[in-house]
Amino acid sequence: MSHIATIQDPKTRLQRFPYRCEKLRTKGTVTNRPYDFLYDPLFIVSSERDHEQANIQATLVRSRLKKVPNFRSMFSNLFHHPRYSMYWNKSDPVPSCVNREWRGEEAKHKEALRLRAATDASFLMPKEEYEDPEVSGRNRYKFFDRPFLPFLQHMPLNVVLATSKLEIFAFPPETSKYAVIPLKCTVGTQTDYRDADVQTDPYSPEYVVCQDTIPELLTLATLTWGRGLPAGQAEVEMIERAREKRAWEASLPPLSDIFHFEKRREMMNAMERKEWAFREGEIEKLQDLRLEVLKQLLRRREENQNELDTRHLNDQWCRLQEAKEAKMVQIQHTHVSNIRKLMRRGKNVEGKLQRRDIIKEYADFASQVYGPLSRLGRFPDNNSEDFVVRNHYLNTYEGLVELEACLPDFVTQPRIIPPKPRVITTKAGFLKRTARMDYELAEVHKAVMDKKKKVLEGKKSLRFLQKNPLPKPRLPTPTLEMSSYEEGEIEMAVIYLQKLLRGRVVQNMMFEGKEKRLELILELRTSHALQEDDKLVKKAEKQVTLALQRQRNLHEEKVSVIENHLGDLEGRVLADMFDFLSKELVRLQEERRIHAFAMLAERQRRMREAEESGRRQVEQRRIQQEDQIFMEVIKVHQSTVTSYLEDIILNTEESTAEEQARAEIEKIADEINDIAYEMENRRTYLQSEEIVAELVYSFLIPEVQKDFVKEKVRNAQRKHILAAHDIIHTYTEAVIHKNARAEERRKKREESEPDKASVSEDQTPGKEKS
Known about the structure:
Layout: E1 4-7, H1 18-27, H2 36-39, H3 48-61, E2 65-69, E3 84-88, H4 104-119, E4 159-162, H5 195-198, E5 224-225, E6 228-229, H6 233-251, H7 261-347, H8 358-363, H9 392-395, H10 397-406, H11 409-412, H12 433-453, H13 485-516, H14 518-528, H15 532-682, H16 685-769
Parallel strand pairs: 5-6
Antiparallel strand pairs: 1-4, 2-3
């Protein structure tokens, strides 16, 4: 796969705002935000009407009128008990510092000033004050480009690796047409169990333990594979301690030895202290190990936090770099756009509108008809790569060699034949018709080109003046006589209004005619200015005008002097009054500020007192909790020691009592056994007969008596059982006979009812006949 490095400008990444995109993603793409026409400087509307329409749409989208439910009548449908009330949200989504007016008026004003400056040379264009970019100040970093650091990105952003596309008409070489099939292949296997399930303990053979022996190996039966096996240093130390304890237990004096009882107690106390010391050492080692693990975890957490902070700083730096690049690209784009606008305005300084000349555009092959600008959104050669024909014989060296081998010789070794000179004359020495036609066409073309190159002469002024005929006056408007005075007043008002309208129309017509014939009027004024009468009239008018101007200037000067004196007096009074008011305002503001400072200080003092009291309460509560925890821990330790000692004492007492009881029972059993054997040996024949007689009298005779008594009771109850059987049989037979007779009567009744019905049917036809 081939990679091609292409250099391009870095793309600007738009900043994402979490507070606006959550709902918009579910509803689809939104073209713009509600208040873009106010915030976005690139958002342009065509007119003030569109600006108002955008404002209305934003107001409808972000409605400040909200429904507030009334909990007492939330489920009511009555008109006089509404479910909700409307609430007007006072918070405006647009800050007060944002101007809501249409920005097109300022642009129109600037355009009007520019056109006036272009037409009137005496007009001075006001200078536009731009904000200081502070290139050498705080904004210096925005105007310089720095390389990306290697540890952030291994490859700069302006290098993009292009993916290789599939060539449609590319033919593979002959060697790679057929894939090579390997002779062997590796097939993976999948088991039904995991490795943890398959892993078992090592095989342990069966064993037989000799009687009254306890092998040392059986003490290690609790150790299994992964839990103590294979044995390490800790297991070896445990085995050694077990051996030492068994040796110590063997060296203890027996419990039956009363003389060495104190020695046994001392040895047990010493061993107990030794075990407690060993246990404390193990606990300390375990605590040290836990402390070391905790230190490692804290160190690792600190390293991870530092790494995360470094990553955040790098990401922030990258975002700022991208924002700076985007800003520079935007500034460059604005610069290019402004340069184009200046060039376009320089071509049309006078501001005249020109129609589009379609013929000229199609005649000029450099116009946008044949090569449109890409910034206008048209890319005529956008998908040209799809129409490029790719062939194996043209794109590969092997194909070119094969193609050259198939070509004939005259392609690689061209044969140049010089052209014959063109014959333009006949055998008689005259020019041919085609040559003469070419000569005439060349002459015509030369004349046309000379005519085009000639400079057009300007328009000459009119030689004779022509009188412009005046239009005929309009006919008088017919009027009607009014009877009342009010109607007369209305008529006079209408007539006066008509006079004004007609005068305004005539004035507009005269002004249009004057503007249209301004050049002729100026020419007439220059031509008739040499007449003596006109000169005298002009001079008299000039003198009258100058006199009027002098009088007006004197009057204005007097009025200005009076106004200056009055303004001076008014200014003094107003200055004193404003000075007093400003000082009073400053005093009130200072007084309010001091009062506010006092209130804030009092509030802060109370808050600090409350915080201090709360802190003291928390501290006292924490001290009490710690004391309680300490007491509980001490109690737990004491109860643990007490329970441990009680368990040891109880276990010792139970084991001692059990051993003594077992020994006493065995002793009593041996004594009884000896007595029984001794009695058996001393017993005679008569004593044996007596024992048999006692057994027969005690067991056999009572059993026979019990069977005799049971038979006697059974015979006594037999007559009562027979009498009960006779009574039951007689009663049941009577009931059975009674039920049988009732069943026979019911059957006879059912048989007699159909016969009666048939007889009644036979009698009805006879009655009808009679």
